[in-house]
């Protein structure tokens, strides 16, 4: 018998609009004693977060569907359905963008948890399948985002930071 095993069906978890993408917190850190979190990400064409870094946790992305361009200071690569991108602890600056004309679907796991709480704080709650437009961030909104990011061990970089 397996103790504490459970099914999390596709209707469970809170959905948040983050920079125009919709993320579902599948397994929040508060359910794993902070050991890890799992986030289901739907990224429309052209969507994805700008350059950022987080030194204190490992982040992995499994591409369920679509094509996503991942950038780091070392260069860029295209990840396609079935590929995995991993960002180890240490703070590598990275970003990703859906470069296809179709929805990209990623499954993100972070060890330890924390990114999930960051998304809950900065995100706008939405329904499953609901997408909000990419928000316009004025100077005050950017300062607020940077401040909240620091609270969760993240550093935000200018949008063109990884352009070469």
Tell me the radius of gyration.
15 Å
The dominant shape is globular
Count of DSSP-assigned helices: 2
SSE run: EEEEEEEEEEHEHE
Report the mean per-residue pLDDT as an integer: 92
Give helix % range.
Answer: 10-25%
Number of strands: 12
The CATH topology: Jelly Rolls
Domain module tally? 1
State the secondary-structure class. mainly beta
Report on the biggest sheet.
7 strands, antiparallel
State the name of the first-level CATH class: Mainly Beta
Percent strand? 35-45%
Topology:
Blueprint: E1 14-18, E2 21-27, E3 37-43, E4 52-54, E5 58-65, E6 67-72, E7 75-80, E8 84-87, E9 94-98, E10 104-111, H1 115-122, E11 124-126, H2 139-151, E12 154-156
Antiparallel strand pairs: 1-2, 1-11, 2-3, 3-10, 4-12, 5-8, 5-10, 6-7, 6-9
Can you put this structure into words, describing what you see?
With 164 residues, the chain is mostly beta strands. It has one domain (14-156): Jelly Rolls. The protein has helices spanning 115-122, 139-151, and strands spanning 14-18, 21-27, 37-43, 52-54, 58-65, 67-72, 75-80, 84-87, 94-98, 104-111, 124-126, 154-156. Strand 6 (67-72) and strand 7 (75-80) form a beta hairpin. It is globular. The N and C termini lie far apart (54 Å).
